[in-house]
Amino acid sequence: MPSVNATIVTYWLCAASNCSHWNPVKANTCETCKAAVCEGAFGLNSDYDKIAECDGADAYGRAIWALHDPDVMDLTEARASTRYRRD
User: Fold this and answer.
1) Burial class (CB in 10 A: 0-12, 13-18, 19+), 12
2) pLDDT (tens digit per residue) in 50-81
3) Contact assessment for residue 12 and residue 22, using Cβ atoms and an 8 Å cutoff
4) Which of 5, 35, 58, 68 has the most beta carbons within 10 angstroms of its beta carbon?
């Protein structure tokens, strides 16, 4: 994965759900699968696909994201695992 500076983004992640190719900022389509490249803050985070999926781009070329429902966790059996012991 290319290094990404917080002030200058030099690569965008492909918007296709089955591709994880990094593309140059000036590219309009992915170099690997030819899908649209969606620009945005998700280019800074490789885990974006866990919370949303790109549905394409609007008339201005901005990404349209379909957010997933958060995973439900059952915490009824959660317990602290730390034990204190004095010698």
Assistant:
1) buried
2) 566 777 777 776 667 777 666 666 666 666 55
3) yes
4) 35
Please tell me the number of Cα atoms within 13 Å of 66 on its side-chain side: 7
At 16-40, the pLDDT tens digits run 767 777 777 777 788 888 877 765 5
What's the chain look like in SS3? CCCCCCCCCCEEECCCCCCCCEEECCCCECCCCCCECCECHHHHCCCHHHCEEEEEECCCCEEEEEECCCCCCCCCCCCCCCCCCCC
